[in-house]
Hints:
The structure holds 2 protein chains of 2 kinds.
Chain A: E1 4-7, E2 10-13, E3 19-25, E4 34-39, E5 46-50, E6 54-55, E7 63-68, E8 71-76, E9 86-91, E10 98-99, E11 103-107
Parallel strand pairs in A: 2-11
Antiparallel strand pairs in A: 1-3, 3-8, 4-5, 4-9, 5-6, 7-8, 9-10, 9-11
Chain B: E1 3-7, E2 10-12, E3 18-25, E4 34-39, E5 45-51, E6 58-60, E7 68-73, E8 78-83, E9 92-98, E10 103-104, E11 108-112
Parallel strand pairs in B: 2-11
Antiparallel strand pairs in B: 1-3, 3-8, 4-5, 4-9, 5-6, 7-8, 9-10, 9-11
Amino acid sequence: EIVMTQSPATLSLSPGERATLSCRASQTVYNSYLSWYQQKPGQAPRLLIYGTSTRATGIPARFSGSGSGTDFTLTISSLQPEDFAVYYCQQDYNLPLTFGGGSKVEIK
Amino acid sequence: EVQLVESGGGLVQPGGSLRLSCTASGFTFTTSWMHWVRQVPGKGLVWVARINTDGTSTSYADAVKGRFTISRDNAKNTVYLQMNSLRADDTAVYYCVKDGWGSWGQGNLVTVSS
């Protein structure tokens, strides 16, 4: 099983600041198979990024993804009030498909 | 617009059974693999199962293998999750998800408790 480890668990930032979230895989994940999701309380997750760096439909350009191999990053260039949420990475390269434990971006 | 509408959740006793349904619309269901993902309230996301387009290939997380069965009825645009021998640690919100991961159901709470 590929274990996905996200850091930090919680990130306290102010609107307008840059957020950098990390996701590390226990084995190589090929780029096509790494995704990022945003989840707000009481809502289903929303796909932000797939294939490591491709924004999903309707996702603003302030969200960007990068990385390769075992290390991946989600960057939010300038936090907007609606961006405070929990973010998950996921690999769908190997079964079982696995998610990271999540990183919460909270208002400082 | 893609829609995934789930039903069938609720309260069940340990050892009991429950069947979740997810009815799809707004896309070609017969060409889409489908998944179930669950989330204990306040915790992270866990993949549960997936099924291919015609139902001939299924895969499961170890935690549910042998107890849960994913299936589909393409004539009804519906995917199912039959859950047997339920345990307290199966308590979660269950989401159905269209492959590609861009479309999720609203979530359906399953509570296993006596």
